[in-house]
UniProtKB/TrEMBL annotation:
Residues 90-300 form the ABC transmembrane type-1 domain. InterPro entries: ABC_transporter_permease, MetI-like, MetI-like_sf. GO terms for biological process: transmembrane transport. This is Multiple sugar transport system permease protein. GO terms for cellular component: plasma membrane. It comes from Janthinobacterium psychrotolerans.
Length: 307
């Protein structure tokens, strides 16, 4: 009597599956690859951005001249800061920079609309308008210092008499802001020119067929498509106004009588000239808090728009 082996082979127990380790899962491999690619950038951001911010906040609670031992003073630097007239002058000037610097985006848009046309020689004109953007702040400051000079400056020749713009506390801040608007307008112009190249020409033609032109075309057709460029221009302009430093250092040195100083230059002045590293750090923390409020507001607005 022969016994069939079919049933035995069918009921043969299978080998147990090996458990999938978490480090070999596909999702973990994807996350690991992303983390490895991001690690160098995160390391640099942590080393050159996050650490200096945290150390500046830590340093603001100490009295230190940069050489001797640090002395913990708690909130004394902040108390002195909010009882100093120069701090409020710098704060007022920062607000003035913020308001007047917002003239750069509409001025840049106007120049971009003028340059966005196909006529002979427009490339040369574009290069002339683009030139201020590639100049350093020191060069721009020197050019406008000569322009404002009351003895041989171009402004004196235009008016017929000299006006000490950089030597008068009433005019010095406005004169420096006007100088800063020159390269900032060129930068906004570049942003808007880039946005104009991506405008949907079919929408423009359809609007023309409907009779839209001039301001109606600009407001209802062009500007809605330039929203990303407008957002970038406004953000960069406001941040530039809050961290203004180079032109003030070159043109007035914060004077006369500290009438043109801003928070960034006031912080530098206290650290370099008077060796007050802790007090300078307190000024920098206040400026960082102002910028942080603005950045968080715009990030929330941008995320809400994307959603």
């Amino acid at each position: 009597m022969h016994t069939s082996t079919f049933g035995a082979s069918a009921t043969k127990p299978q080998a147990p599956r090996r458990p999938v380790r978490w480090w070999s899962a596909p999702a973990f491999k994807r996350h690991r690859a992303a983390a490895l690619f991001l690690a160098p950038a995160c390391l640099l951001v942590g080393l050159y951005v996050v650490y200096p911010i945290l150390y500046t906040i830590y340093l603001s609670f100490f009295e230190w001249d940069g050489l001797a031992q640090k002395t913990f003073v708690g909130l004394a630097n902040y108390k002195e800061l909010f009882h100093t007239d120069t701090f409020f002058t710098a704060l007022k000037n920062n607000f003035l920079w913020l308001v007047l610097f917002l003239l750069a985006p509409p001025a840049g848009l106007a120049v971009a609309l003028y340059l966005n046309q196909q006529v002979r020689g427009i490339r040369l004109v574009k290069s002339l308008f683009f030139a201020p953007f590639v100049l350093s702040g020191v060069v721009v400051g020197l050019i406008f210092s000569w322009f404002y000079d009351p003895t041989f400056g171009l402004l004196a020749l235009i008016l017929g008499h000299g006006v000490p713009v950089l030597g008068d506390p009433r005019y010095v801040t406005y004169g420096i802001i006007f100088a800063a608007l020159w390269p900032q307008t060129a930068y906004c112009m570049i942003l808007f020119l880039t946005g104009l190249t991506s405008i949907n020409s079919e929408q423009v033609e359809a609007a023309r067929m409907e009779g839209a032109k001039g301001w109606k075309m600009l407001i209802h057709v062009i500007l809605p498509q330039l929203r990303p460029s407008t957002f970038m221009a406004v953000v960069v302009t406001i941040i530039g106004a809050l961290r203004s430093f180079d032109l003030i250092s070159v043109m007035s040195g914060g004077g006369p009588f500290e009438s043109s100083t801003v928070l960034a230059y006031y912080s530098y002045d206290q650290a370099i000239k008077y060796y007050r590293q802790g007090y300078s750090a307190a000024v920098a923390v206040v400026l960082f808090a102002m910028m942080l409020v603005y950045i968080v507001y715009h990030l929330k607005r941008m995320l809400r728009t994307e959603q």
